[in-house]
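Q: Hi! First time asking for a complex rather than a single chain. Here are the components, and I think there are two in total. Is that enough to go on?
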Amino acid sequence: KNEVEQSPQNLTAQEGEFITINCSYSVGISALHWLQQHPGGGIVSLFMLSSGKKKHGRLIATINIQEKHSSLHITASHPRDSAVYICAPLAALIFGKGTTLSVSS
Amino acid sequence: EAGVAQSPRYKIIEKRQSVAFWCNPISGHATLYWYQQILGQGPKLLIQFQNNGVVDDSQLPKDRFSAERLKGVDSTLKIQPAKLEDSAVYLCASSFLATGETQYFGPGTRLLVL
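A: Yes, that's all I need. Here is the structure of the assembled complex.
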């Protein structure tokens, strides 16, 4: 069983839709990273959070350390949001396989 | 602030050849990581350095992979000899102190072994 599970694996949306990507993990951690990887590009850190919720523009990340679950939300999605989103419980240095998001206009 | 630098960006080699990748972390970052990302999968940690010492290399295939960070700054990752299954993106990341802090990723080196 993978220690980090992301769902869905693939997500297709229309521009403007509200997007949710979920991450569940089995390792005990104190913080979790959400990363964005564009095709052919490097990885960009979106959030590092250890509790509650963080918001940056149209992106919102939440985490429940006790339940070992985190979610990444994108409000009013846009084609430029198309990328792979990766969840990474940091202290364990384990990464999810990523969720491939494709937003069409 | 300059980001994590990696070179080369792309490399194509034949199996059994050798290849080396270079990483320059963000200035002042003590911790450096090398990851291997095979197409369709998340990154997998190969080795973690704290300054010039190895913290974790449990997933590094030591029969063919080696890495060093002699002066605690730049690092090189070498594969000798390369196999077809080594085709992947090799990512370098750094963080200010230790595990658990925000990691900053370089652009990666895309390796194709033919």
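A: Residues 45 and 101 of chain A are 16 Å apart (CA to CA). Let me know if you'd like any chain examined more closely.
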